[in-house]
Amino acid sequence: MSSPPRPTRDAQGLTHGPTWLPVPRTHAEHLVKRGWRERRTLSELLRAQVRSRPEHLALVAGDVRLTYADLDLHAERCADVLRTHGVQPGDRVLLCVGNRAEHVVAFYAAVRAGAVPVLVLPTLGDADVRAVAVAAEVSAAVVVERQGRRDLRDLAVSLRALPHVRAVLRPQDLDVRSTPRATPPTGSGRDDADAEDLALLTLSGGTTGTPKLIPRTHADYGYNALASARACGVGPDAVYLAVLPAAHNFTMVSPGIVGVLSSGGTVVLSPDPSPTTAFALVERERVTLTSLVPALVPAWLDEARRTPADLGSLRILQVGGARLDDATARRVGPELGCTLQQVFGMAEGLNCYTDPAGSPDVVCTTQGRPVSPGDEVLVVDEQDRPVPDGTPGELLTRGPYTITGYYGARELDTVRFTADGFYRTGDVVTRSPDGDLTVVGRVKDQVNRAGEKIAAGEVEELLLARPDVRGAAVVGAPDPHLGERSVAFLVVDGPGPTREDLRRDLTGRGVTAIAVPDEVRVVAGLPLTGVGKVDKQRLRAWAQA
To answer: Distance between CA 511 and CA 503 in Å, rounded?
Structure first.
């Protein structure tokens, strides 16, 4: 298969030419025959459950309670709303909604209309959201007016100003809280998509500029969701509590919202991640499964000792996004009364899970095994040579639901993918003789803060833009709650900025809050290597001291 021409952008930033590389049809059919790829669209997976259990509770969010029949009708009605605003098959629809019923309804409405949802967290900085909208060439957007203390109305105005955006809607414009009409609206029963079509765009990395856009098809995302559901024992009796942001890949497909709804279970959306809020929902909705990042686990364990809530329904607590320290992992079972399941994966594809019924030592000290028999993993040294089991090396992977290239950024593919199609994850892992993976670090100059990848160089550029900063270096340091915290070493004129100074400065420039260093240290000078580069190995030692 010859390489397609690279896409180009015009003066308005619009892309022309191939923007992503679909799997060749012959290979896709081979994967389907092996049971490693879905023939159905995401909308068809939902409709299968609508036919099987129309009156079963599908979605709970605040005072909204939708059966599968309700969800189906709302999704179709919202698909009509999108069509009315000019959304056509293949168009991109940006969703920046948060943990609300409208996120789920709009997601399925978009795919039902043949459009491509672009999933964005409301915590992403305005400049980043706008850059994503330009890179994805979105035709419409659904944007919440307020998320916590953050006002997003100015963001909505700036999106309306983009030349390719035809409509910006508010969640309330989707009218999810009204009673669905008794008869299906126009277009019901019709999907404007094929299983091998682009299904959604999700985001990876990036703290300034444009985060990378990850193209996922119905066929690979549906398989990812269902394989994950099987690994977690999810079926119609499952009640999944979405504590983490609904637009995050972990929350969407591990097995998350898509996996649970494609399996006939119930999804409950939590408005915030606090254990007080979550425990009340666990008791009220009889939640069986939920997911956290390591940073949230200690607070949950502390609250579990004093909560009056009945947590007896909770069977599995998933923890992923960063490495959970072994000591905290061993506390989960005894203190929460449920089984820990560690999850390791990436929005680009590969998902790994520990076996809920497996050895406690393996569950508490590893991040599991790939979910699919079709997943291929290599652990290699700096020359891409395989290393022995137990030896740290970079994880490379390819498989039936791992992407083969980024969207609209073909120049990245020669860096992030090998010549034979393996994705370079940037994670340093060890592999046991039984195939269990343990994450021990990162190859690239990044900080993995509670599952969010922070590019150190991008933050350094922001810091150096300040007139009082003459030198800047950002490194990660181990943290029992965050996995890693970001530490900024600054050479400054004068007393130097505090962390609060940096927070006001960076967020005031529209940068996502995750870019703000957790710790700031003023130093007389940055240590250098023999070739004159900043010696980050020494800085990491300083940060840990």
So the answer is: 9
Contact of 292 with 319, CB cutoff 8 Å: yes
CB 422 within 8 A of CB 397: yes
For the segment 91-102, what is each residue's pLDDT rounded down to a tens digit?
999 999 999 999
Q: What is the number of other CB atoms lying within 10 angstroms of the CB of residue 274?
A: 15
446-544 folds as: GMP Synthetase; Chain A, domain 3 (3.30.300)
Token pair for 422: 């393996």
Q: What percent of the chain shows pLDDT beyond 70?
A: 92
Q: Which CATH number fits domain 21-225: 3.40.50.980, 3.90.700.10, 2.40.50.140, 3.40.50.2300?
A: 3.40.50.980
Among 455, 443, 206, 230, smallest CA distance to 347 is for 206
CA–CA separation, 361 and 358 (whole Å): 9
Cross-strand pairs, 291: 318
Residues 6+ apart with CB under 8 A from 175: 77, 81
What are the residue boundaries of the structural domains of the chain, listed by start?
21-225, 446-544
pLDDT tens figures, 505-539: 998 888 888 889 999 999 999 887 544 557 888 99
C-alpha separations of 516 from 116, 131, 296, 513 in Å:
31, 20, 19, 6
292, two tokens:
């956290």
Task: Supply 197's token pair.
Answer: 């079509």
| pTM for this model (two decimals) | 0.82
User: Whole-angstrom Cα distance, residue 41 to residue 111?
Assistant: 8
Task: Check if the beta carbon of residue 222 is closer than 8 Å to that of residue 191.
Answer: no
Q: Are 320 and 290 contacting, i.e. CB atoms less than 8 angstroms apart?
A: no
